[in-house]
User: Fold these one by one.
Assistant:
Number 1:
Amino acid sequence: MTLFRRVSSALPKVSEFARRPFTSSKFPVHPLDAASSSSSSSSPSSSLVHGVHVFHCPDGVGIVAKLSECIASKGGNILSVDVFVPENKHVFYARSEFVFDPLRWPRKDMDEDFRKISESFSAFKSVVRVPELDPKYKIAVLASKQDHCLVDLLHGWQDGGLPVNINCVISNHHRGPNTHVGRFLERHEIPYYYLPTSLGDKREEEIVTLVQDTDFLVLARYMQILSGRFLESYGKDVINIHHGLLPSFKGGNPSKQAFDAGVKLIGATSHFVTEELDAGPIIEQMVILFPVSECF
């Protein structure tokens, strides 16, 4: 294991796991050389596969040790573990990344091993994901007039960097068949739906109908606020790409807000969508070395 991090910080009460920024300490740990050598001597070697395990349970003693023991006992090697313990909340969050030999640790056995740990700690959520072996997530992308977030997602998907299937793209702004995005979607047979919105009609019922067969939604600079009723009706994760560094500069025109406040750097934030605008748990952030004054 190359990195272990544990933090105690205030987090909003949510049922889903999210990665959040924090200060961390590094604890060097020697790789599992013994496990790796025993694996290679006992069975034919195959390519190592990358896995991710997300865990959410009541806080207690020995959780990290048990998760690590589970992976190590099967010859796996932990790459990193992110651990979160919110202040004044008796809950524990963890996200583990590891590599393993699928010949020694078959996928169905992995599910059963993590299920036993989940039961022993009365976990609220325990999800294991092996992108190379598991079916790809099905997503829908919602966008408005500006294309840059949508184009970046589409190109990432085309290059194989995003292990998802894009079921459809929905927008409240029209894109003709001869536009760059229109040609791309047509070439890859991705359905495109134009649903113009107004103050009195956000077309949410139609959107819910179109995205029923998806695992989560991505808002790629979708300039509409989704209602609590929509989020409840959809019932799955909705991820927003916000063109600013949350929790500061929420809402519209965050670049101008940052400029007016004297901020020298700009960035972007991906976060889970909740009823409160731009207040959902943060997944990832990136700072861009670009003059704020040139962003609007």
Number 2:
Amino acid sequence: MRKMHTSAWKKYRMQKKISTTIVFILFALFNMVSSRDNMLPHHLKLNSALTCRLVGGLTREQRTLCHDLPDAAAIAFEGLQLAVKECQHQFRWHRWNCSILLSKSSNPHASAIMKRGFREAGFLYALTAAGVAHSVARACAQGRLLSCGCDPLGYRASHDPRGRAKANKWEWSGCSHNLAHGIEFSRKFLDVREKVDDLQSRINVHNNNAGRSILASHMEVRCKCHGLSGSCQLRTCWRATPDFRVVASTIKRQYRKALMVAQEELNKGMMVLKGRPRGRRRSRARPAPKSSLLFFEKSPSFCEADPRTDSAGTTGRICRIGRTTRTGSCDLLCCGRGHALIRKSSIKPCNCTFHWCCRVDCQRCRDDKWIAICK
């Protein structure tokens, strides 16, 4: 009887040990999977095929790249949306204001205006290419991508007060934004759309490169001081992409002085893109600088709604009362249709007083403003 009891006890202990081992293994596997999921961007937790299908206007090559690198493609889509947001800010007082670019798809390249040769299309190509490179470069340094990390290049240069380089002054040991990888992925993801070797495709690629070139020219050096009381005995420095609004503003300046592709290029299809400033048809065509924007089609007025050009029209837009030459003035924005004044009322806190300690009491006042609306 005692032997049977001992045997049963040993069997119970063995089963318990096996169960404990299995639970431990399952727990370890769960931790490995969950930790890996935490390391990956949240976009990867979705089905990559579904994510790539949800974005319209992608070419077959872009969908292949999206399936192969879904985390980088998700960051690229963020860069495209950043570009559209900045486009809306830069053109907020223009007749065409990027207002309907994302109404049908999160991909601005699916819009009708991107298939035309307007100056506005050239601006969009440059801005979206810079936006993708900007977002990917930052994501690499933030550890959001599996395919890249900090910029692997090391720098050992500083400058004296006269601007001359000093070798081996200190090492930039910070995590620099990986601009090279961002530009490379931007090329793979966007330039692949222009596989046809015609003039419009070459112009689009040129404008893409112009946006990336402007981004590269605005890279910043940021440093952090180390030492007692911030004495800066040691500095950690790194290269960083600038605020994207700075890049968008520079591209907007290039938009204002964009070059019209020379007529002889339209007829002969020369290998070197040449252009001349607007309004100077008799001037000599010169090779286009790498940071300049090109276009070959005169832009419409954008006064009326037209889905063929992604124009929402200007009816109902807020305009500025004042000088006729001012951007967003009612005379320019309303296209001669006139405007109406509307009183807009809102409730705001006013006459606030501070009571010790610690309370602030405010009255509620009505604030009336007159705004001009295009007819």
